[in-house]
Amino acid sequence: MAKILISRDGVLEKTVQLTKERMTIGRHPHNDIVLEHQTVSGEHAAITTILDDSFLEDLYSTNGTFVNGHRVGKHHLQHGDTLKLAKYSIDFVADGIRPISGIPAMPLVLPPARIEVLNGSNAGRTLELNKPQTTLGRAGVQVVVITRTEAGFAAVHAEGDRIPLLNDAPLGKLPHPLVDGDVLDLSGTRMAFRLG
């Protein structure tokens, strides 16, 4: 289970396990994680966790939400990310995939997959999906993250105001499983997901 370490002025104040699918952070007492400082908005941010993926969302806070020094609206959290909410520094700690107790972990074996660019000056170029996560797009504008999971590959709109499309429908902030032949559209650049 992922957790966050909350510090202020270099002093660790609390450690919070991300036990719920969506946990809100803010100054008001109804939040799941309460940060009692006037520079924190009443409802500042939220962390949504689905399986082993966590996503940070700024809730239109006054002073903004930052990850590794960059202001974000929505962000796919990675192990070791440092969040800044007003006076607070928050370290994100992912725990990785947990094997079921008593059963040895099996190696992750998935068929090879790639992204093929369908149009524009890079048409025909391919990108092998051989890492746990592959990022597509431009930071701050439009970012899609493709994640390898035990069940296969999934895409999520991780960052930016422009909504990417998956098979001509908006790709949301929750992971969407990919199947062979799916077409992603990032700002007019069309890319096909190829399996095998």
Automatic annotation (TrEMBL):
Transmembrane segment boundaries: none
Domain FHA: 23-72
Domain of life: Bacteria
InterPro entries: Cell_Proc_Reg/RNA_Proc, FHA_dom, SMAD_FHA_dom_sf
Stored Pfam families: FHA
Protein name as annotated: FHA domain-containing protein
